[in-house]
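Backbones bend. Shown next:

***
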Amino acid sequence: MTPQGTYLILKWSYIVVYMRAKQRRGPESRVSAIQTLADLPTGQRCIIDRLELPEDVARRLMELGFLPGNEVIPGKRAPGGGPRVFRVDGSEVALRDDTAARLYIRRDPESDFVVLA
């Protein structure tokens, strides 16, 4: 049992793959603005960088495929400003904006938009 208020923070940038990408692209290509899943337009591909959520919520999202390094594509929003659908790891998962705002991403500015049916 974890104490209330404990957070699990996973950073993809701690993994060796980050070093390879940095060497390949160079330090000049880093995007300065920090973005979250809640910031993206519909269909914009992105890669999850880190989750800053309570441990139990983060663990559940990771079970659903929201792992650092996985690609996520934001979909349509429910009517009335409800949850938004995200495609991740071959499935579709709806997340509220407050949860999506705690999932930080990396995005290639040249990545293609995906048309979601």
Summary: Helices lie at 16-25, 55-63, 97-100.
